[in-house]
Amino acid sequence: MKERIEHASFRLRAQLDKLEHMYSRLQQRDRDLFQRCVGAQVSKDFAHAKIYANESAEIRKIAKVVLGSQLALERVILRLETVEEFGNIMSQMAPVMSIVKETKSKIAGVVPQVASELDEVNNLLGDFTDEAGEVTAASMPIETTDAEAKKVLEETGAVAEQRLRDQFPDLPSLDTLRQVNPIQVPEPAISGSDFERLQENVYQYARKHDGELNVRSCADSIGASPQEVRNALERLRDAGRIVFE
């Protein structure tokens, strides 16, 4: 019994090492993309800045899955150590298998080789519990183990999200990656319409900032909502007063 549990723990630690290595690579890739995004913004190359920002956002989605899976496997390994020390197989092994199964499903599209190994580990644990005769459908309902697995993954997902916020710098808002070129045309007189007044304020803001328009900053500056600023930009474009680059 002890040797089987130790073997399963060893194989899980090997997969944990792979996930930690992949997470480090994702961090490095994100730092590179972040620097490129900042550099493109400084150069006012907003098309490339948006590409880098979008790619960085995708990297962070993958990183969250990888980090959450790391944390889940750490929980599984600790649980197996408890089983090994105290032999409480009936109440512990089924939840372990369910957590491994759920983690495998989450990671399958990101690191298939790790998912495949987790599937084999789960089969190993299943064979072990069948031989031990300790865990049966009557003693450990699948609904209970699945509920515990989902709770563990929700907890590890929340921790992963917090760590990502701590370890990855904030991406520039995609709203900042819009270049607006005000076209020098005779300015129409401002009517009493609130929306026309808003359009004019947005237009003047864009001119004042040499066409580099941050939607949220503009909204805060003129006392409007970001959506109202976006609507005004669309109307100004349709009227031929600005051009988006």
Calculate the mean pLDDT score and round it. 78
Binned strand content = under 5%
Oligomer designation: single chain
**Total number of distinct structural domains:** 2
Shape: elongated
Give me the number of helical elements: 8
Amino-to-carboxy terminus distance: 66 Å
Radius of gyration: 27 Å
Arrangement of strands in the largest sheet: 2-1-3
Order of helices and strands: HHHHHEHEHHE
CATH topology (level 3) name of the largest domain: Ferritin
Number of strands: 3
Helix content: over 70%
Low-confidence stretches: 134-144, 183-192
CATH architecture of the largest domain: Up-down Bundle
The major beta sheet can be summarized as:
3 strands, antiparallel
Reading off the top of the CATH hierarchy, the class of the largest domain is best stated as: Mainly Alpha
Structure class: mainly alpha
Name the features.
245 residues, mainly alpha, Ferritin, Arc Repressor Mutant, subunit A
Provide a compact summary of the structure.
This protein is mainly α. The protein is about 75% helix and about 5% strand.
Q: What would your notes on this structure say?
A:
The protein is mainly alpha-helical and 245 residues long. The chain has 2 domains: 2-167, Ferritin, CATH 1.20.1260; 174-244, Arc Repressor Mutant, subunit A. Helix content is 75%, strand content 4%. It is built from 8 helices and 3 strands. The chain has a 3-stranded antiparallel sheet. Helix 6 (194-208) packs across helix 8. The radius of gyration is 27 Å and the shape is elongated.
Give a topology summary.
Elements: H1 2-42, H2 46-86, H3 89-107, H4 112-132, H5 142-167, E1 178-182, H6 194-208, E2 212-213, H7 215-222, H8 226-238, E3 242-244
